[in-house]
Structure formats: structure tokens, C-alpha cells
Amino acid sequence: MTHAKRDTSRSSTRQNAGDGEHRIYPDESSIQNADLFTRLRARRITPRLLLAYAAALCLLLFAAPWAPTYALGCVMVGLGLALRIWTFGHLRKNQNVITTGPYAHTRNPAYVGSALVMTGLFIAAGNPYDYRGLAIWMAGIVGLYVFFKHYMPRKYRREYGKLRKLFGPSVDEHAAHVPDFFPRLTPWRSGDTQRFSWACVRANHELVWPVAGIIALAIIGLG
Length: 223
Known about the structure:
Layout lengths: L1 H20 L14 H7 L4 H15 L5 H22 L20 H17 L5 H37 L1 H9 L20 H6 L4 H14 L2
Helix pairs in contact: 4-5, 4-9, 5-6, 5-9, 6-7
């Protein structure tokens, strides 16, 4: 009986130690360890962000879907969300240069996934036979232009500079083999063996976005 209790205690100690060892973001004060609402409150509200929210609301309110393009848009949204989950299953922010999974194909897989989701939502919400549908598609083209011409270059400058300060030559080595955005077909073999982890997906708070995508598509489908 005493022996059984001792084993249980030892097992509990190992489990607790293991939880600490396998925590994706060990720093208790990291924003990554905060809940979703705390993270949202911490976001700085900018005119750019308000404009994005307004555009998303208009997309949902004025959607005029057509079955064939709605189906195509759903497929694109699904692919984009799947890519984002794959991405955040490998991402450990500010810990090392990630070169496995989708990062072996593109340096910015999360943004590729976001572009697919955005494009898919616009395609799903529009149609070629209705002025509202055509207007939504035109707005989508403008949105993609802003995304590639202004948003992404600004992100590259800010994030690459930060990564170089943290990881030095490893960042440039990754850049020499993997494109910034449009993926290469074959993965670059960096030698890193990091694998996909659902714990990473949860730690990066990514599971909320597939739910949001499904709700958005459902609202568009009712348009």
C-alpha cells in the first residue's frame, strides 16, 4: 500500500515537471500565455485595423453568393485555414528560426494562409451576375493590392529586422533557400527535425480562426 502511494507521488511529480518542460512559452508573463480576450484587449486599435473590421462587416452584410463561386471560395478558405494550422503547429515565436513544415516552402506561410482565406471569402461573397457581387470582387482586388503592395512590405521590414537581431545568420540562410511568399514546390532540408504539434497550435491561439471562418462562410451563404 505504501509502495503504491510512493509510485503515485513520483508519477505526479514527473507529470508536473513534464508540464513545465513541455510548455511552449515558458515565460509566465508572455502574451502568448494570456487568454484570447486579454490578447484582443492588448491589441492597439489603429485606423488600419478599424478599416479592416469595417471591410469584413460590409463583406458579410452585402454578400451576394452564387453557388459555383461560393463553393470555390469555401475550398480556398479551407485551404488557407489548414495552412495556418499547419504553420502554427510548428511556430515557436522568438525562440528559433523555424525551417520545418510549411516554413520549408515559404518564409511566411501564415500570411499565405491569410491571403487564401481573404481571397476565398471575397470569391464566396460575390458573383458575376449582380452589381453587389461584382462590387465585392472589385473590393477584393483592391484589398489584395493593398495586402501585397503595402501591408506585406511593411511586415517584411519590421519582422525580418527583428529576427536578424535575435538569430543572426540563420535568418539569412533561410532566406537564401526559401522564398518570402509564394511557396517553392520542394521543401528545403535545413536539418531541423521539429515536428508538428497541436500544443503549439493551442499555445498560438489559432483554433479560434477556423471557427470564425466557418461562421463567416455560413453568414455569406445566407446572403
